[in-house]
């Protein structure tokens, strides 16, 4: 009730344990707090918070228009309700080295378990679009070093994302990733890999774990967890999947209401009131009220 019962420090430690384990883990993207609660209740290992999904939910493209304050508030609202580790998209860190250090601390204070920084220039673009530009390796190393220096909880995971595959090639992207790991990155996010062999090459070249971004309509095929585990991937994220599911259903539902003048034909596909109340633990709030407000004024003046 009211939120997570597991302290943020324990969730960060759990994230570390998952990355150090031998099994591949799945972090679906949550577009809001109730989405994160459903992810936890269905048995996933963690929650991902996508910058692209957040931007889209604000009616904005994913080009760095959302602010640190907005993203921190969004991350706090989601991390507050789940006992799972929450892993958030920090774009390019919202500025230079000192800004990046502050970004880490803001996410720590918001209860997040980890974040990823990318090596794109500002303004950034979606990782699966063409025309991306990246900063120099030295500049990205500064970003990562600043993040590591700003970190106060050693278990807060700092991930480095490289978008260099598209413009510089696989070998150059791997060289960058090695430099990022040497600078202190705990996890590497190779964006827009073309096939399983590229994930495998990346994983084999590094001493830190890698993640796979299984976003729809992108450069990568939608591989199964079994396939990705075989290629050496440790973590899989599904950044915009829940947003696309929700928006697709909303659009179809509104079209039906517009055409038929009622939602009667689509009620069967909706979340029921009972399921909603179970998801948000409505009963616990009633029990809390009953325990607190069970006194009587009788006999008191």
Automatic annotation (TrEMBL):
<dbReference type="InterPro" id="IPR039556">
    <property type="entry name" value="ICL/PEPM"/>
</dbReference>
<dbReference type="GO" id="GO:0046421">
    <property type="term" value="F:methylisocitrate lyase activity"/>
</dbReference>
<dbReference type="InterPro" id="IPR015813">
    <property type="entry name" value="Pyrv/PenolPyrv_kinase-like_dom"/>
</dbReference>
<dbReference type="GO" id="GO:0019629">
    <property type="term" value="P:propionate catabolic process, 2-methylcitrate cycle"/>
</dbReference>
<dbReference type="InterPro" id="IPR012695">
    <property type="entry name" value="PrpB"/>
</dbReference>
<dbReference type="GO" id="GO:0046872">
    <property type="term" value="F:metal ion binding"/>
</dbReference>
<comment type="function">
    <text>Involved in the methylcitric acid cycle. Catalyzes the cleavage of 2-methylisocitrate to yield pyruvate and succinate.</text>
</comment>
<keyword id="KW-0456">Lyase</keyword>
<dbReference type="InterPro" id="IPR018523">
    <property type="entry name" value="Isocitrate_lyase_ph_CS"/>
</dbReference>
<comment type="similarity">
    <text>Belongs to the isocitrate lyase/PEP mutase superfamily. Methylisocitrate lyase family.</text>
</comment>
<dbReference type="Pfam" id="PF13714">
    <property type="entry name" value="PEP_mutase"/>
</dbReference>
<comment type="function">
    <text>Catalyzes the thermodynamically favored C-C bond cleavage of (2R,3S)-2-methylisocitrate to yield pyruvate and succinate.</text>
</comment>
<comment type="pathway">
    <text>Organic acid metabolism; propanoate degradation.</text>
</comment>
<protein>
    <recommendedName>
        <fullName>Methylisocitrate lyase</fullName>
        <ecNumber>4.1.3.30</ecNumber>
    </recommendedName>
</protein>
<keyword id="KW-0479">Metal-binding</keyword>
<keyword id="KW-0460">Magnesium</keyword>
<dbReference type="InterPro" id="IPR040442">
    <property type="entry name" value="Pyrv_kinase-like_dom_sf"/>
</dbReference>
């Amino acid at each position: 009730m009211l939120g997570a019962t597991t302290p943020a420090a324990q969730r960060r430690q759990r994230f570390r344990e998952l990355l150090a384990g031998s099994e591949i883990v799945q972090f679906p993207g949550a577009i809001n707090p109730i989405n994160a609660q459903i992810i936890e209740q269905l048995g996933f290992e963690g929650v991902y918070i996508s910058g692209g999904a957040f931007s889209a939910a604000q009616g904005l493209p994913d080009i760095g228009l959302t602010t640190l304050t907005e993203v921190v508030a969004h991350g706090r609202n989601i991390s507050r309700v789940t006992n799972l580790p929450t892993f958030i998209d920090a774009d390019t860190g919202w500025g230079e080295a000192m800004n990046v250090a502050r970004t880490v601390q803001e996410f720590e204070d918001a209860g997040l378990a980890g974040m990823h920084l990318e090596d794109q220039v500002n303004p950034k673009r979606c990782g699966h679009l063409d025309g991306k530009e990246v900063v120099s390796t030295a500049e990205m190393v500064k970003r990562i070093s600043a993040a590591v220096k700003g970190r106060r909880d050693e278990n807060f995971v700092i991930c480095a994302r490289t978008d260099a595959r598209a413009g510089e090639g696989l070998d150059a992207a791997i060289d960058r990733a090695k430099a990022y790991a040497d600078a202190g990155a705990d996890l590497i996010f190779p964006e827009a890999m073309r096939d399983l062999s590229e994930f495998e090459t990346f994983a084999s070249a590094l001493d830190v774990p890698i993640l796979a971004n299984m976003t729809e309509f992108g450069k990568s095929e939608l591989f199964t967890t079994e396939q990705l585990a075989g290629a050496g991937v440790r973590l899989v994220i599904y950044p915009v999947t829940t947003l696309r599911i929700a928006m697709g259903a909303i659009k179809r539902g509104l079209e039906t209401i517009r055409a038929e003048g009622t939602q009667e034909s689509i009620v069967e596909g909706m979340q029921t009131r009972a399921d909603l109340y179970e998801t948000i633990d409505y009963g616990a709030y009633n029990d809390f009220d009953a325990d607190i407000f069970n006194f009587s004024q009788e006999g008191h003046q």
